[in-house]
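During the reporting period the student researcher (J.K.) took over the structure-prediction task from the postdoctoral fellow and processed the backlog of single-chain submissions. One of the processed entries is reproduced below for the supervisory committee.
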Amino acid sequence: MDLIWEGLRKALELLLTLDSEVLRITWLSLQVSGAATLISLAIGLTLAVVVALNEFPGKRLVIALLNTGMGLPPVVVGLFVTVLLWRNGPLGSLGILYTPSAMILAQAIIASPIIAGISLAALQHLPQGLRLQILALGASRPQMVWLLLKEAKLPLLAAVMAGFGGVISEVGASIMVGGNIKGQTRVLTTATVMETGKGNFDVAIALSLVLLVLAFSVNAVLTHLQQRGRRP
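J.K. obtained the following structure tokens:
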């Protein structure tokens, strides 16, 4: 219990004193995971729309792959991206391994199937005749897609929250492709692992609490957007 109370005290101290290192790590965590979520939203939503609104051979296999991807282990993604970006790898010439860009790439790969899978289920759950009704009223195909997305707004925002939650809390891929370099690629999760390994449990607990506050704050904003205009 003493460790927990010391961690709470340390967290309060770091927050109240606006510790520069903690602020830097927190800001980088938000930048990396925010950018990865936006990229994965574009990829995942596009995949969901294409799969949900079209019939093609192997559709069930594609859906199964997307659903499987929702549980993709971050360490596997980290290994794949590391090999891809290694100096002798296919994209080694980019020179972005152990940079925030590599972390964004890895996290986008993790979040894309999460957002795609939930968005696909949301679109498939809409009434089958709704699409035909919208087209019958004279809407173009892009307008039809937009109206369907608006109709499925609640689960789609839940998909965004799930995607962001999946990447802001992951650690394996971030360490592998980012290297946990101080001032460059150190984020809240990797810093927590490092401090725990050093036996600095009070600092690790403090960083964990900061991470929880950050995750809650972002999800609170998304929840407000999701629930806005709904009756209590």
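The committee noted the following: The radius of gyration is 20 Å.
J.K. will present the remaining backlog at the next meeting.
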